[in-house]
Amino acid sequence: ETSRRAFTTQFRLTLTSSGRVADVQVLIPSGYEAMDRSVLAAVHEAMFPPFPPSLGYPSLPFPVEIVLTPD
After folding, report:
1. Residue 61 in contact with residue 7, Cβ under 8 Å?
2. Given this model, what pLDDT does residue 3 score?
3. Residues 36 and 26 sit within 8 Å (Cβ to Cβ)
4. What strand order describes the sheet that includes 7-16?
5. Residue 64, Cβ neighbours under 10 Å: how many?
6. For 1-55, what is each residue's pLDDT tens digit?
7. Handedness of CA 5, 37, 13, 42 (dihedral sign)
């Protein structure tokens, strides 16, 4: 039953040095399309702290895993 199991999705988030989300790609879908769409929408709206200037990269990809449980 979908109401009792955990849903896990993995995606790659690419951030610019200013902390803006440049790209989000689902790597492994959860099997529940509505959850994957919600995660993508939330991540696209997120703002992250800027990179330290000493890092020297214009953007960086980050792998992310989200697990949603009914509890």
Report:
1. no
2. 58
3. yes
4. 21-28, 7-16, 59-68
5. 14
6. 455 678 899 999 999 999 999 999 999 999 989 889 988 899 988 999 999 999 9
7. negative
The structure's pTM equals 0.77
Distance CA 45, CA 32 (A): 21
> What is the torsion angle, in degrees rounded to the nearest 10, for the CA atoms of residue 64, residue 67, residue 31 and residue 44?
-50
Q: What is the DSSP string of 1-16?
A: -TTTS-EEEEEEEEEE
Question: Which residue carries 């690419």 as its tokens?
Answer: 14
Residue 17 CA to residue 21 CA, distance in Å, equals 10
Question: In angstroms, rounded to a whole number, what is the distance separating the alpha carbons of residues 22 and 25?
Answer: 10
Instruction: Identify the residue whose tokens are 């988030």.
Output: 13
Instruction: Map residue 60 onto helix, strand or coil.
Output: strand
